[in-house]
Amino acid sequence: MPADDVLLEIEDLRTHFLMDDGVVCAVDGVDLRVRKGETLAIVGESGCGKSVMARSILRLVDPPGQIEGGTITLHRDSGPVELVGADTKLLRQIRWNDIAMVFQEPMASLSLVHTIGSQIVEAVRLHENIGKAAARKRAIEMLDRVGIPMPARRVDAYPFELSGGMRQRAMIAMALACKPSLLIADEPTTALDVTTQAQILELLRDLQDEFGMAIMLITHDLGVAAQVADSMAVMYLGRVVEYGSAEQVLATPRHPYAQALLRSMPRLGRARQRRLTAIKGMVPPPYARPDGCFFHPRCEHVVEGRCDRVSPRLLQVADRQVSCLLYEEDK
Amino acid sequence: MLGYFGRRLVYVVVTLWAISIVTFVIINLPPGDYVSTVIANAQAGGVSLTPAEITNLRLRYGLDDPIFVQYWRWISAIVLHGDFGQSFAWNQPVSTLIGERVLLSAILSLSSLLMVWAIAFPIGIYSAVKQYSWGDYGFSFLGFIGMAIPEFMLALILMYIGFRYFGASVGGLFSPEFQDAAWNLGKVLDLAGHLWVPIVVIGVSGTAGMIRVTRANLLDELYRPYVHTARAKGLPEWKLVLKYPVRMSLSPFFSTVGWLLPGLIGGETIVSVVMSLPTGGPLLLSGVMNQDMYLVGSFIMILSVLTVLGTVVSDLALAWWDPRIRKRYKRE
Question: What's the complex ipTM?
Answer without folding.
Answer: 0.87
